[in-house]
Specification:
Helix content is 73%, strand content 0%. By secondary structure, the chain is an all-alpha fold.
């Protein structure tokens, strides 16, 4: 057990739930990210009709379908990259690209603007599940409760779209895309922290690198032998009875 605790960075000295600050940061990042993601998808058709001339809602829906296809492709590409690169680095790279292309969409128009917003959806793809996976690493007995808290971040989808809508009524949907950019930047602080702050990075890396129960699973020599005399005696007695 001590070896397992050390390998997975979880032990009896865990902090109480109220002091799991990394978890709360992850949950808030999820709230901001999900809110921004829903806002972008919800106003994508409005963006297309307002920023591209002679574009109907039906045509805008087609562009949205293409963008959602980009999202699906991004999910597969991100999963593939994570086989060779640490997920936290992929997460940082993808979320950084989200901010770059979403920012470009606020100033670009016509086909260029729609392309920028489609690329935004492509790079959004891995963010939600990666925040969940990284956020619950190293919190031990709080994992179940913590995962629920992070997943509850989907409530951001009820908070951010109205803000974007109110801004769009005044400035137009193209300019209003700055609202999800701001929320993505807040979520980006977690991506930075989990890559560059040791108290965030080390638990994530140690959990991911743990080989307890995997390495040498079939090797007889790797199994623990009873060392206590009482245990040995009990084993010998059982064998004698049999």
């Amino acid at each position: 057990m001590p070896q397992q605790a050390q390998a997975t960075h979880v032990g009896a000295a865990e902090k109480p739930f109220r002091q799991q600050y990394r978890l709360f940061h992850a949950a808030f990042a999820q709230f901001c990210y999900t809110g921004a993601q829903i806002a972008i998808a919800g106003y994508f058709i409005n963006y297309a009709t307002e920023t591209r001339k002679n574009t109907s809602s039906a045509t805008g829906a087609i562009y949205l379908a293409v963008a959602q296809g980009c999202f699906a492709i991004g999910r597969f590409s991100g999963s593939f990259l994570m086989q060779f690169v640490k997920p936290r680095w992929v997460f940082l790279a993808y979320l950084s690209c989200v901010i770059v292309f979403n920012s470009a969409a606020t100033t670009q128009r016509q086909n260029t603007g729609i392309a920028m917003l489609s690329l935004t959806l492509f790079f959004e793809s891995v963010c939600f599940p990666t925040i969940v996976a990284l956020g619950i690493r190293g919190i031990g007995k709080h994992t179940k409760r913590g995962s629920g808290l992070i997943v509850a971040g989907v409530s951001g989808g009820a908070a951010v779209p109205p803000i974007l809508g109110a801004t769009a009524d005044v400035k137009g949907t193209g300019t209003a895309m700055v609202v999800p950019v701001c929320f993505m930047v807040v979520a980006w602080t977690y991506a930075l922290a989990v890559n560059f702050i040791p108290s965030y990075r080390d638990p994530a890396d140690r959990i991911g690198a743990a080989t307890i129960g995997i390495e040498n699973a079939g090797d007889e020599s790797s199994r623990c032998e009873p060392e206590d005399d009482l245990v040995k005696g009990a084993v010998e007695h059982r064998e004698a009875v049999v």
